[in-house]
Amino acid sequence: MARGAINTKGPLRAYLNALEAIIEVKGTLLVNMIFTIEGEEELGSPNLPAALATERERLAAADGMLFAMSMQNPDASVSMFLGNKGIVAMELNAAGSRWGRGPAVRNIHGSYAAIVESPVWRLLQALTSMTDDYGAAIRMEGYLDTIRAPSAEDAALIDILMERFDPESWRESLAVGAFIDDLDGLALIDRYLYTTTWNIDGIWGGYTGPGMATILPHEATAKVDSRIVPDQRSADIMPMARRHLDRHGFDDVEIRPLSAYEWSKTSVSDPIVQALKGVYESRDISPEIWPHLAGSAPFYLFTDAPLNLPMVLGGMGHGANQHTINEYLIVEGLGGIASLDEIEKSYVDFVFRFAAL
Predict the structure, then answer these.
(1) Contact between residue 77 and residue 288 where contact means Cβ atoms under 8 Å apart
(2) pTM (2 decimals)?
């Protein structure tokens, strides 16, 4: 139990242990391995593109990419993911100094709210103009125009997923009362995978400490992220948001870029995917194969040009609570969930299977 136990120091250590075991027995690895390891993914991987560019020729010679991750569910089933959504992250800031109304230099006494307008309300109005009442539908012009429908391959994978999909277990694990529009079944999966989002990660302004402090803030800020799907591109997102704000009279609201990833996709028929699938099937596990993650990571740096590497995310073992307290990885095995040594053996199996292709 530790930060990184499941995401992703534990699975990476297990993979390295597996390779060490192969070398001890065989004297060498069966295939060439190139490792790309960074510590800035949670910050948006700001330096990874430049780092990869220096190794482009060497990386382009690879046949595929594995993102080692323990992906067994609590019921011991296994999920595989063939890509991910992209993301665009930014801050929106409303300030009296740019607006020309409200406090321009500093917070002032809250009694002046009777005669002075608030940049906090200004920011809230700007945000609510961009979506429906609860953020479920984006209202920015052109924002959804490039989204493509699921491919025939994706649709076939989803049909198989539907045979085992349990929306109630999702609702319980997330501790939510209901899904948007009471979505269920196929409509829920379709919305989850193929709908872009406009999410407020956090919002602040003025005094937020204990007790009272009756002030009228001079500025307010919100962190926003948008998960983008095929065929949206990150470079288009902030300009669309800028045009929307300007068109609706919020030209004073500043947009500050934070980070961006593109989406990525790999075909289920690719050899590296089939190698990992064979690891599961040899253990009498039929994997749940998802077209992509609804989350984001910089996989596009490998799957897009110029590298064009197929990528698969997966592995045996179970853990949870990444990004929060009590993050864990199960070590000794439990109810069909692989133990640490079984995780390592499964990675040995993967290397042998991929080497034989």
Answers:
(1) yes
(2) 0.90
